[in-house]
Structures are given as structure tokens and as C-alpha cells.
Design a protein that fits this description.
single chain; alpha/beta; Rossmann fold; 2 domains; eight-stranded mixed beta sheet; 11 helices; about 20% strand; globular; binds iron/sulfur cluster
């Protein structure tokens, strides 16, 4: 079981980036964090992995993975776990790779962390590259990142993440920049390889999010809705979730213009077509079975 509780994250000058968040996820389940750019998705991922900018002020963070409170681990222990038990797939693969070392060396560093014997390195490296779609992996091993196309670099980064010891995987906009063929390779391998890991997927694409077991919708650092993805997508409770669904390319893009002043109680108030006086006065938190939403709507 993965559980997360966070009271909030603010900048050093007091600007709130994330408001209270709490959710839990059974082992082997996936959750998509959905929201526009700047909604706090990547900040939350960095908070989980212990990679936040030290200038940010984090309050009340407790993360449990299995029986362990991983947020209380020392920095050295967190460093040992990252790349082995906690895997992060960044959204810009080429920037993640070290430009000064070959793919062979970078894969070798990952294998060392995973406990693979040195004599097995080349065979395992080739097998990882084959898994991510390189039919002839050996010439890739001696290349440097600048010799790869963007799509090839994304696939190499994916190969680097395929730790057999992964308990927690966070993928940040994993399909960004991939062509449809590589999206299929990624999606199949991601769910197969990490089938027993807790998977968090950061995406602005609500269609892609529908493949996850649960969805958590963020707007300006506030959780607008959370629940089993089928229920959230078929019967969204929050007008903000509805707006995101309607904004998918499949439904045609729609712009949401600000139609009234902002409100401190609901981050969507300035734009929401269903806003009323009650939005400023009523208790917005609603819960029903496994669902949560923040709105006057029932
Ligand atoms: S609380 Fe009001 S403004 Fe906010 S999403 Fe719900 S209806 Fe819209």
C-alpha cells in the first residue's frame, strides 16, 4: 500500500504551491495526476522522491510505501533507493542523459545499482535496449546522447528506468514527444514491467490518464477530484474535471476565459460556468465511497 499525506508546500516568500493532499493506492495500482501546466504535478512527484528544491517549505509530509515511512529516511538512504526501488521517468529524456558518457556507461551505472554482475552487463544492456524497441542494440551502446534523436533518447531513458527492484514508479508526461508506435511500446512495456509496482503517471492528457486505475485532478495546487478513473471520467463531479475532459483533442480544444474575479475557496471559480454565490460560502469537500471532489456539486 502507498499512502501520502501532505499539508502543503510553499515558496520561501510564502506563495502556496500545493494545498493539502491525501490519497492511498494499493500495491500494483496506478494513479494519474492530471492538470494543466503549473498545477503542481511535478512538484508533488519531486516531494515524493525527496528531490524538492530545499528552498521550498514542506509541511506535514508523510509517505508510506509498504510498511515503511519513506519520507522519514535520511538523504543517503533516499539516494540509494532512487533509480533502484523508486524510479523516475523524466519528461525530457535527452536532458536527463549525461552528455559526457556513452549509453553503455550510463546503463552500466544503473545495472550496478540493481545488483547485476559485471560479467552480465553487456547482455543485460542489449536486452534492455531491445525491450524498448531497438532491434540492433549493440551500435547504440557506444553512442553518446548527442548522437541520438529525441525519440531514441526517450527510449534509452526508459531502458534506464527498467529496474527489476522498482516498488514505486513515477512517469512525468511519459508519452510527450513520442510517435504513436513508441507510445504503444511504452504503454505495453510500462504496465507489464511495473505490474507489481505502485505507478504514478503525471499527464495533462486525460485520454492517457484513463488507462490508470485512479485519477487525481489538480488545479493550481488544489485537489479538485479523486477517484477510480472510470467513475471520474464517466461521471465527473467537478466542473473543472469536465472542462479538462472536454479539452482533450478528441473533443476539440476549448478555451476557458476568466469571467469573474478569483476566489480563495475554489481555484476554478474565476472560469467556472457553474459558479454560484454558494461556492464562496459552502463547505466544498465532498466524499462518497472511494471518491473525493471539491465543489458545491453533489
Ligand atoms: S465550487 Fe463552484 S466555482 Fe468551484 S468548480 Fe464547483 S461550481 Fe465551479
Amino acid at each position: 500500500m502507498f499512502t501520502l499525506r501532505l499539508e502543503g508546500i510553499t515558496t520561501s516568500d510564502g506563495k502556496r504551491i500545493l494545498s493539502p493532499i491525501a490519497f492511498s493506492l494499493e500495491e500494483g495500482k496506478s494513479l494519474s495526476l492530471v492538470g494543466e501546466s503549473g498545477s503542481g504535478k511535478t512538484t508533488l512527484a519531486y516531494a515524493i522522491l525527496g528531490l524538492l528544491d530545499p528552498q521550498l517549505k514542506v509541511s506535514g509530509l508523510e509517505i508510506n510505501l509498504g510498511k515503511e515511512n519513506i519520507s522519514s529516511l535520511k538523504e543517503k538512504e533516499k539516494r540509494d533507493r532512487r533509480g533502484k526501488n523508486w524510479v523516475y521517468l523524466p519528461q525530457n529524456g535527452i536532458a536527463f542523459l549525461n552528455p559526457a558518457t556513452s549509453i553503455r556507461v550510463q546503463l552500466g551505472e544503473a545495472l550496478k545499482k540493481w545488483g547485476v554482475k559485471k560479467g552480465d552487463f553487456e547482455a543485460v544492456e542489449a536486452s534492455l535496449l531491445r525491450k524498448v524497441g531497438f532491434k540492433d542494440p549493440y551500435p547504440i551502446l557506444d553512442k553518446y546522447p548527442y548522437e541520438l534523436s529525441g525519440g531514441m533518447a526517450e527510449r534509452v531513458v526508459f531502458a534506464l528506468s527498467l529496474s527489476p527492484l522498482a516498488e514505486l514508479v513515477i512517469a512525468d508526461e511519459p508519452t510527450n514527444g513520442l510517435d504513436p508506435k513508441n507510445i504503444d511500446i511504452f504503454t505495453e512495456l510500462f504496465s507489464k514491467h511495473f505490474s507489481s509496482s505502485t505507478r504514478l503517471i503525471i499527464t495533462h492528457d486525460i485520454d492517457y490518464a484513463s488507462l490508470s486505475d485512479y485519477i487525481l485532478v489538480l488545479n493550481k495546487g488544489v485537489v479538485m477530484e479523486y477517484g477510480p478513473s472510470k467513475q471520474v471520467l464517466e461521471n465527473p463531479k467537478s466542473p473543472y474535471t469536465k472542462a479538462l475532459i472536454e479539452a482533450t483533442p478528441r473533443h476539440g480544444l476549448k478555451g476557458y476565459v476568466q469571467i469573474r474575479d478569483a476566489s480563495p475557496s475554489c481555484p476554478f471559480y474565476g472560469f467556472c460556468p457553474l459558479a454560484k454565490e454558494e461556492c464562496l460560502k459552502e463547505e466544498l469537500d465532498k466524499r462518497q465511497d472511494k471518491r473525493y471532489w471539491r465543489c458545491i456539486q453533489r
